[in-house]
Amino acid sequence: MAAARQSTQPASESQPERVRRMPRAERREQILDAATRAFARTGFTATGLDDIAAEAGVTHVILYRHFASKNDLYRAVLDRACTRLGDAVGTETYDEGSIPALLRAAAADPEGFRLLFRHAVRESEFRDVIDRIRLASTEIAHRHLADTIPDGPWQNWAARLIPTLTLEAVIAWLDTGQPDPDHAANRIGQAIQGVIQAAQTG
Known about the structure:
Blueprint: H1 11-14, H2 24-46, H3 49-56, H4 60-66, H5 70-89, H6 98-108, H7 110-119, H8 127-145, H9 153-175, H10 184-201
Helix pairs in contact: 2-3, 2-5, 2-7, 5-6, 5-7, 6-7, 6-9, 7-9, 8-9, 9-10
């Protein structure tokens, strides 16, 4: 009888395989990782939610459970990159460990670093993120330079130039394959010292 027949098909083949449901926080990080990679490749405007869903291996439904829009997702990516950078480098002072820490942070998250300082800096809607970083960096530079350059326009010049030079130097270092990591911080430090000397001469 048909009812008495037992299937010879293994249970794993006769029933659909269950997909493991990822904890919400873990899924959110997975999406942020994928979005960081996708946005870093082509920037905000040229990257669609289809690209991000494909990169993360999730559906649009899952994507929208975590982020209301592409703007919401992009800002979350930038905020996470800022937090990671601040945790790695610090946000209050500059000392001899700051540039090595910045290089380590950039090497650990090159896509996030490029998003902040190559892409977002050109996107007016998200420029506030970078403006906050630049303002804080300039204030730190002012405090660091106070003992070596007299207060005035040349100190202002150096305080604005040094953060820009440092970030561009790190991006160039990433783009050229992270050469000579043991001495890269010293080379960037020499460039910064050149700015300080020029400001002192002025």
